């Protein structure tokens, strides 16, 4: 067994890296993603419009958080994706990615961070709750969650 040398990067993953990452995540995650979006178009949108917080182990993308931060200061960031490959789960990578996103949003003076999580994904829900997110809405398939950063909305 080799020791992992996780390296944090930002905005470096290519389309091929992200696609490979998605396919190495939990099968249920990938299936649900495919049912909601065209994977190729979604990856293109992430690469062109999202701030990407990445965790790498060598040349493998192990964790990815993509957040739309392309709004004005004082507004909300929207996390569109937080995923960790199946072989790297339960190592705190999702929490580390969330912390980096939260610090970035605070530094840039955003009001808060919003996201949606599938109602069946209890592990992700608990992770978000531990980081201070609160449920604001629930639908048949998703929970909307929000973290206030204490910046007044302009």
Please state the overall shape, judged from the principal axes of the Cα atoms: globular
Report the CATH C-level class. Alpha Beta
How many whole angstroms does the radius of gyration measure? 15 Å
Largest sheet report? 7 strands, mixed
InterPro entries: Acyl_CoA_acyltransferase, GNAT_dom
Protein name: GNAT family N-acetyltransferase
Organism: Undibacterium oligocarboniphilum
GO molecular function, one term: acyltransferase activity, transferring groups other than amino-acyl groups
Question: What does the model show?
Answer:
The protein contains five helices and seven strands, in the order βαααβββαβαββ. It is 35% helix and 32% strand. The protein has one domain (6-148): Gcn5-related N-acetyltransferase (GNAT) (Aminopeptidase, 3-Layer(aba) Sandwich), CATH 3.40.630.30. With 154 residues, it is an alpha+beta fold. The model has no long low-confidence stretch (mean pLDDT 90). Strand 3 and strand 4 form a beta hairpin. InterPro entries: Acyl_CoA_acyltransferase, GNAT_dom. Keywords: Transferase. Residues 17-150 form the N-acetyltransferase domain.
